[in-house]
């Protein structure tokens, strides 16, 4: 972890210093390339990154983002391209990667399974006939009280 940080931090600092000297999309893309982003993804991942940089370029002006909300809205409308090397009979992918694609049949393993977790309640509901509703938080496990 420390070695990676020592390699990445100077690149991020340099990118921060170059803000305003180049378009934001170009700055983000060159930073991603310098920290080794392309080596971490396959050809489809590189194409997905290229689409992201194109969207970023359309919502910036003078090296600054015009609107975070607009960037988020446009990113929501991006769709993953199907894997051309995948078997035509079956494609296994994450829900994120399948976003926007259409399939005749979708199999979601474990969808009906219940989540195993801590059964402790976060809130207790207690109704009184004289009151509308009383809602009280349960104190933290370590016993410390909230200072507010």
Task: Please give a structural write-up.
- With 148 residues, the chain is mainly α.
- The protein has a domain at 2-82 and 90-98.
- The protein has helices at 2-17, 24-34, 43-58, 68-76, 95-98, and strands spanning 60-61, 64-65, 123-126, 134-137.
- The strands form 2 sheets. Strands 1-2 form a two-stranded antiparallel sheet. A two-stranded antiparallel sheet has the order 3-4.
- Strand 3 (123-126) and strand 4 form a beta hairpin.
- Helix 1 (2-17) runs antiparallel to helix 2 (24-34) and helix 2 runs antiparallel to helix 3.
- The longest helix has 16 residues, at 2-17.
Spans with pLDDT under 50 lasting ≥5 residues? none
Give the helix proportion (percent range).
25-40%
Number of strands: 4
- Alpha carbon gap, first and last residue: 37 Å
Strand order in space, largest sheet: 1-2
**What is the ordering of alpha helices and beta strands?**
HHHEEHHEE
In terms of DSSP E residues, the strand content is 5-15%
Q: What would the average pLDDT be, to the nearest integer?
A: 79
Q: Quick one: overall form?
A: extended
- The Rg value, from CA coordinates, equals 24 Å
Return the structural class.
mainly alpha
Major sheet summary line = 2 strands, antiparallel
Helical stretch count? 5
SSE layout and pairing:
Elements: H1 2-17, H2 24-34, H3 43-58, E1 60-61, E2 64-65, H4 68-76, H5 95-98, E3 123-126, E4 134-137
Antiparallel strand pairs: 1-2, 3-4
């Amino acid at each position: 972890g420390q070695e990676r940080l020592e390699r990445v931090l100077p690149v991020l600092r340099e990118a921060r210093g170059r803000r305003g000297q180049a378009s934001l999309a170009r700055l983000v893309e060159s930073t991603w390339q310098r920290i080794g982003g392309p080596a971490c993804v396959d050809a489809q991942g590189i194409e997905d990154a290229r689409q992201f940089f194109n969207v970023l370029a359309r919502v910036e002006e003078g090296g600054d983002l015009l609107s975070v909300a607009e960037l988020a809205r446009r990113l929501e409308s991006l769709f993953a391209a199907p894997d051309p090397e995948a078997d035509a009979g079956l494609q296994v992918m994450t829900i994120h990667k399948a976003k926007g694609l259409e399939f005749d049949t979708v199999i979601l393993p474990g969808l009906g399974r219940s989540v195993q977790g801590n059964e402790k309640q976060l809130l207790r509901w207690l109704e009184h006939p004289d009151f509308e509703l009383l809602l009280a938080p349960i104190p933290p496990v370590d016993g410390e009280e909230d200072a507010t």
